[in-house]
Please model this.
Amino acid sequence: MPKSCPPGDEIRYSIPFPQCWDGKNLDSPNHKSHMAYPVFNDGPSWIPSRQYKCPATHPVVLPQITVIPAYDVPANGDTSSWRLSSDMYDPTQPAGYSRHADWFNGWDQEIAQIWGKKCMQERRNCGTYMIGDGREAVEFQGN
Model:
């Protein structure tokens, strides 16, 4: 965690989820080993979409999900006391090493099916908010 930043800026970090699943286990004792990150493929460099592949131990490709939280820097720019709620280690150690993310499926099943067909099966890059059929997903603000 930076100690200070220009007031009004944002501190962001990126947490990419592993894209490769072992195809068997929905979880593992360490909550990690059933998943893996793609590895570099030494295949032809002229095929950019084939530069990475899942390892043989984790052959099932999943959608790429990345969480990018952003924190507003206060007016005084002082972030020296910031710690993540998961930074439960010795406070003399630098903050931010415990960062992690969890994903829970709470999608409407109709939208999930459309997204699965259009974005995954048809291999479209749906990006943020896109569900693959020309519509955008919108945030639910409650009643």
